[in-house]
Design brief:
Shape: globular
Strand content: 15-25%
CATH architecture of the largest domain: Alpha solenoid
Strand order of the largest sheet: 1-6-4-3-2-7-8-9
Helix content: 40-55%
Radius of gyration: 26 Å
CATH superfamily of the largest domain: CHAD domain
Number of helices: 18
Largest sheet: 8 strands, antiparallel, barrel
Number of strands: 9
């Protein structure tokens, strides 16, 4: 068995020439090229995929090599995977696999006897052998080609850094050197995952945040690591959609991922290493700004202007105003795509992943951590956030939009925190609190959108008299709804003041 440690990076096809000129590749001890044809196999019901097992034949010269791989651990583009290779002699042979359970499972008739090809890859691979320091060897592989299944085909353009000898951190050092001039964000979707999606005809879709598998026995730093990696995964899984598609939900989900990461940085601040947050917060700002501008315009168009345009279809001034907003929205989306193509974006992701793979987040086996337990820490921080909400609710006033906005932000932070620790909160009280907080956040969000829409609408209208008149129409149409939301503020504030949380310790 061979244990592979691999860091995958995405590279745009038009940036290959720039990548080939990187100084660290010029110092490689060897450089080779090869053509690789691979065929991936599974049962008709994709039993291998469901079991997390990969079976591949790869042509090497005039012979074929069989590979079985079990997906072991993947985080932020870094993958650790055990695999077994053997010559292919015109039939599958699993006798060499030293994982007894896996070997016996593959040898069952309903698995080994029902295997068929599901997808194929064909690529040109350039391999550099790097020896950056004594006792460190890394292979850098640039793959260019295609993947195909069921008459569907996608291009392959990626860089893979494989650790031969040395530390995991040395992979990130080389990756950051390569990312100085090129946008090389970590790549989460493997060729196999993309192949299965083609085989099944799975359409791309925005990805929401998942549950974070933290445990009460974890240390606060170990819990933050899991949360941080989950936020980065959430961000990266929506990257391609935001970069190439017009569905605003991709942008929204990237923004949610960044907000969750920012909330986690704030919540875990007392236990984070000195200077850790600063290394991430500054590069996050450019992306947050671009995502925020596009999201604000999406909300302005979809929730403020569009309902009025539908209600007043014969009003040309509204159509002109919608056109002006749409122009700004396209410009905002173009800015997001520019940000995602800049080297700084890949550097941010690589830096964040690298930090989370180092001490003190990775503790030695059996090491005892000082400080509070995770339950103690979570209980203390959740109550601190709840106390801030109670104070803001006491100071909030219906006639003061900034006070309501501050309360909404605090509610959002507590909601994210409860979602992080939901598995440790007794019974259904965590889910109940999340539901109540989400409803309050949504109601205050509607009020904030209406309160801030006027300024943004006037910016879009500029000095055009007709567009300014359209802004007045929009404001008048939403006036009754705005008044109703304001009238409900005292009841909302009472519900906030009544919020409680169960003790975790």
């Amino acid at each position: 068995m061979n244990q592979q440690v691999v860091l995958k990076l995405a590279v745009a096809e038009e940036r290959h020439a720039g990548l080939l000129r990187q100084p660290c590749l010029a110092s490689a001890t060897t450089r080779t090229q090869q053509s690789l044809v691979s065929i991936y196999y599974d049962t008709g019901r994709l039993a291998l995929r469901r079991a997390g097992v990969l079976l591949r034949l790869r042509k090497q010269g005039t012979s074929w090599q069989q590979m079985v791989r079990r997906q072991d651990q993947s985080a932020g583009g870094l993958t650790m995977r055990p695999e077994w290779q053997a010559p292919y002699l015109n039939h599958f042979d699993f006798a060499h696999i030293n994982d007894v359970d896996l070997r016996e499972w593959l040898q069952r008739d309903k698995i080994g006897g029902r295997l068929g090809a599901v997808f194929e890859t064909n690529l040109r691979r350039t391999v550099w052998e790097l020896d950056p320091t004594p006792n460190t060897r890394i292979q850098v592989k640039l793959d260019r080609g295609w993947i195909a299944s069921n008459g569907r085909r996608e291009t392959i353009s990626e860089v893979e850094l494989q650790l031969v000898t040395g530390s995991i951190d040395s992979l990130y050092q080389i990756a950051l050197q390569l990312a100085q001039r090129e946008a090389l964000p970590p790549l989460l979707l493997s060729k196999a995952e993309r192949g299965y999606r083609l085989f099944r005809g799975t359409l791309p879709a925005p990805v929401k945040a998942g549950d974070v598998a933290i445990d009460a026995a974890d240390t606060p730093l170990a819990a933050f690591r899991l949360i941080g990696l989950d936020c980065l995964t959430h961000l990266q899984l929506n990257h391609d959609g935001a970069a190439h598609l017009d569905d605003p939900e991709y942008v929204h989900q990237m923004r949610v991922a960044m907000r969750r990461l920012r909330a986690a940085l704030r919540m875990f601040r007392p236990v984070l290493p000195e200077g850790f947050a600063e290394q991430l917060v500054l590069p996050m700002r450019e992306l947050m700004s671009a995502l925020g501008q596009a999201r604000d315009l999406d909300v302005l168009m979809g929730e403020i202007v569009a309902p009025v345009a539908v209600a007043l279809p014969d009003e040309p001034r509204l159509a002109d105003l919608a056109g002006a907003i749409t122009n700004r929205l396209y410009a905002a989306r173009a800015e997001i795509r520019r940000v995602l193509r800049r080297p700084a974006y890949g550097q941010f992701l690589l830096t964040a992943s690298r930090l989370l793979q180092q001490a003190p987040f990775i503790e030695p086996p059996g090491g005892e951590a000082d400080g509070p337990s995770l339950l103690q820490f979570a209980d203390r921080r959740l109550r601190r956030l709840l106390g801030a909400i109670h104070r803001l609710a006491a100071a909030a006033r219906a006639e003061s939009p900034p006070s309501l906005h501050a309360l909404r932000i605090a509610i959002k932070r507590l909601r994210y925190a409860i979602e992080f620790f939901d598995t440790m909160i007794p019974g259904k009280s965590g889910a109940t609190a999340i539901k109540r907080l989400a409803a309050l956040q949504d109601e205050l969000g509607q009020l904030n959108d209406l309160a801030s829409a006027g300024t943004l609408l006037m910016v879009c209208a500029g000095r055009d008299t007709q567009l300014r008149e359209a802004v007045t129409l929009v404001g008048g149409w939403h006036g009754q709804r705005h008044a109703a939301l304001l009238d409900d503020i005292p009841e909302k504030l009472k519900r906030v003041r009544d919020l409680t949380l169960p003790r975790l310790v």
